[in-house]
Specification:
Length: 440
């Protein structure tokens, strides 16, 4: 199924369940027994948890599959971190730029976008100081959410940056009068700053739609932090504890939406034999793909793929990068299929024109290799059912020109054509009916 399906959600109501068990109970003369009522209660609680994860209009999870209104969801999308601040810049007609990008994306069948729901930096900050927000910038985010809904594009919204760009965790640490960036994960004052931001964003009432973000089905999921890393020698424990705490906090506010961490996918101590797939030095980032994603409140896993920057000494023409990409994606699909047992989404991948040997043909070759793996996993019922490339832009100049930008110009050999073909393949994909899994 593609994400545009808006059929009414089909599920057993609680009253139907009660009636069903009443009839079964009568036939087995169990109705007046305590064990029967305990069994009934557990059944209802379990099914309630499943229905919460699959409320009408909200994307949910069934085992390793994304679901919407009881059917599978396949994703083809793009990153556009710039949308909130661009929409807030009304003086330069930024909202027109956002609308153009969403319209172009929709034209080639894309159905999900990943954006920033934060900015603590110097240019058009959303959060100026702890708890102090720019209403104009928030209205920019309101517009993005509203406009994405008009074009049937779901949003993954990240809540803070690991890096200094747009403020990030370093700014939170500075606000608390501290120096060490890793204290973002451990200091009680800093953690409360972050929680306050989470609550502010999730409970924000959109000035255009009148709907709170936490109640808006346009939002696909929340992301705790873009590409978390930790330099401490015990970083895997530090991040694990932080993710547990913050994931629980997000879910205490918003039970409608899915939640992911924002991981790049680096393996850690929980599965040391998998670290051979990491690019050099990644084992020192303090993340652990397996254990981090096994936290119950985390709904799906993510990976990023940047062969040029991760393997700068290997030319894409030697085949070493191609081999790395195949092994990297394959290992994570296997682990999500059999160990984590949750969906996998490739939330960043790209090729930069700033690296030697770049060409549109080379980028298209890379995109196609990623898209083919996604499609093969999806058609066989595997855990990887979508990809989100970095990044979509409409303007070749300015801050958006980071080398990875993709433009939606049409033509026989363009990346836009390749993206459109992937959208069509996923839209036409037919898979067996879903088998209902209990919530994890």
């Amino acid at each position: 199924m593609y994400i545009y399906n808006t059929n009414a959600y089909k599920c057993l109501s609680v009253s139907c369940c009660v009636n069903l068990f009443y009839q079964v109970g009568k036939s087995f003369t169990m109705l007046n027994t305590v064990p029967f009522f305990l069994f009934l209660l557990l059944f209802l609680v379990g099914n309630y948890r499943i229905s919460v994860a699959e409320k009408a209009g909200f994307v949910g999870r069934n085992g390793t599959q994304f679901v919407l209104n009881g059917e599978r969801v396949y994703l083809n999308g793009f990153n556009a971190y710039w949308m909130m601040t661009t929409a807030a810049d009304t003086a330069s007609k930024g909202r027109t730029t956002v609308t153009t990008a969403l319209r172009q994306a929709s034209t080639v069948g894309m159905n999900v976008a990943r954006i920033w729901g934060f900015n603590e930096g110097d240019y058009l900050p959303l959060q100026i100081s702890p708890g102090s927000y720019s209403e104009d910038v928030f209205k920019g985010l309101d517009f993005v959410v509203y406009e994405a809904g008009r074009y049937n594009i779901k949003l993954i919204i990240s809540l803070v940056n690991n890096f200094e760009d747009f403020g990030g965790r370093k700014k939170y640490v500075e606000w608390a009068g501290l120096d060490e960036p890793d204290e973002f994960y451990t200091n009680s004052v800093v953690k409360q700053f972050y929680k306050n931001h989470v609550k502010t964003v999730l409970t924000r009432k959109n000035t255009i739609t009148g709907r709170a973000y936490k109640e808006d089905p346009t939002i696909f999921s929340w992301e705790l932090i873009n590409e978390p890393r930790c330099n401490d020698s015990s970083g895997s424990t530090i991040l694990q504890n932080w993710v547990k705490e913050m994931a629980g906090y997000v879910k205490s506010i918003d039970s409608n939406h899915l939640l992911e961490i924002g991981l790049e996918g680096f393996y850690g101590e929980s599965k040391p034999e998998r670290t051979v797939y990491n690019p050099g030095g990644a084992v020192l980032t303090g993340t652990d793909f397996i254990s981090n994603n096994q936290i119950p409140e985390i709904d799906f896993a993510t990976i990023h793929i940047y062969p040029d920057s991760w393997l700068p000494l290997q030319s894409s023409r030697t085949g070493e990068q191609d081999e790395f990409v195949d092994n990297w994606i394959g290992a994570h699909i296997q682990d999500c299929d059999s160990i984590i047992k949750k969906p996998l989404l490739i939330t960043e991948f790209g090729k930069s024109s700033k690296f030697p040997g770049f060409s549109i043909e080379e980028r298209n070759k890379f995109f196609k290799s990623v898209y083919d793996v996604i499609y093969d996993s999806a058609r066989t019922g595997g855990s990887c059912t979508g990809g989100v490339f970095w990044q979509l832009t409409t303007n070749r100049t300015g801050l958006l020109g980071d080398g990875y930008e993709v433009f939606m110009q049409q033509g026989p050999n363009t990346t836009a054509k390749l993206i459109a073909e992937q959208s069509i393949k996923l839209k036409n994909l037919k898979c067996p009916p879903l088998v209902t899994h209990s919530a994890v």
